[in-house]
Amino acid sequence: MSRAFVNEDDQRETPFVAPRADLPEGVPNYVTPEGMEALLAEKESLLSELIQAKQDKHDSQNSVTIVNTKLQMIENRILSAQVIQKEDSSYKEVAFGAIVTLQIGSSGKEQKFQIVGVDEADLKKGKLAFTSPLAKVLIHKKAGESAILKLELGERIFKIIKIE
């Protein structure tokens, strides 16, 4: 179609909605109970945002489309979520939901991480996705053991100090 017959007012860009955290094909969508609460709270927030977008007359169609897309993505994650309850007894080895205190390399520096679902992961808050390379080398290790993470320029050793 020639550009001469296109209404200039209809030249809106298709809204971009960033995808949710990557969950590899075939990997279950594990979440902690707190992670499920956060997903449900996010859904409620998006529902409120959708109502507001539908009431707002200014640029409503783009806003509604964006919120609907986000809502569909969060609903898909909620439907696929498998909530993993924290073990009643203390962890004997690193597992999903555990909080792990690690000594990083030979520096003696310690850091705590909790192994969580992909939607919950946030390194600034010490939450590590169970699909991450570090979590994968830590799973099933016991306190006192070391895990070796192979990096492009060598490797880094993490000693497991404590598992909660």
Characterise this structure.
This protein is of the alpha/beta class. The chain has three helices and seven strands. It has helices at residues 33-55, 60-80, 133-138; strands at 29-31, 81-83, 99-104, 109-116, 127-129, 146-151, 154-163.
Task: Write the SSE topology.
Elements: E1 29-31, H1 33-55, H2 60-80, E2 81-83, E3 99-104, E4 109-116, E5 127-129, H3 133-138, E6 146-151, E7 154-163
Parallel strand pairs: 1-2, 4-5
Antiparallel strand pairs: 3-4, 3-7, 6-7
Helix pairs in contact: 1-2
Strand order, largest beta sheet:
5-4-3-7-6
Task: Give the strand tally.
Answer: 7
What is the average per-residue confidence, as pLDDT, rounded to a whole number?
87
Separate helix tally: 3
CATH superfamily of the largest domain: Transcription elongation factor, GreA/GreB, C-terminal domain
Structural class determined from secondary elements: alpha/beta
Oligomeric form of this entry?
single chain
The percent range for helix content is 25-40%
The CATH C-level name of the largest domain is Alpha Beta
Q: What characterizes the major β-sheet?
A: 5 strands, mixed
Separation of termini? 64 Å
Q: What is the H/E order?
A: EHHEEEEHEE
Q: How many structural domains are formed by the residues?
A: 2
Write the CATH architecture name of the largest domain: Roll
Radius of gyration: 22 Å
Shape: elongated
- Strand coverage percent: 15-25%
Uncertain spans: none
CATH topology of the largest domain: Chitinase A, domain 3
Structural features:
alpha/beta; single chain; Chitinase A, domain 3; 30% helix; Helix Hairpins; two-stranded parallel ribbon; 3 helices; elongated
